[in-house]
Design goal:
It is built from three helices and no strands. It is elongated. By secondary structure, it is mainly alpha-helical. The chain has helices spanning 6-10, 21-39, 42-68.
Length: 69
C-alpha cells in the first residue's frame, strides 16, 4: 500500500482552478444572441438564448448543490 506524503495532500488543486466555464459560456452565448438579434438573425438569436438559459440553469443548480454539500 502506497501512502501519499502529507505535504502532497495539502497542495491539491481545487476543481475551480480552470475558471468558471459555465457562466463564461452563458455570457458569451447571451452576447451572441444580442448581436444576432440586432443583425436580424432571429433563428441564431433564439438558439443562442436557449443555450445561454440552459447554461445559467445548470450553473445555478450546481452552485446550490455545492453550497449544500
Amino acid at each position: 500500500m502506497v501512502v501519499a506524503p502529507l505535504a502532497a495532500l495539502s497542495t491539491a488543486v481545487p476543481l475551480q482552478a480552470g475558471g468558471g466555464g459555465l457562466l463564461y459560456y452563458a455570457i458569451v452565448f447571451f452576447v451572441l444572441a444580442l448581436i444576432a438579434g440586432v443583425a436580424g438573425f432571429r433563428g441564431v438569436a433564439g438558439l443562442s438564448m436557449r443555450v445561454a438559459k440552459l447554461l445559467v440553469v445548470v450553473f445555478v443548480v450546481l452552485a446550490i448543490v455545492t453550497l449544500l454539500l
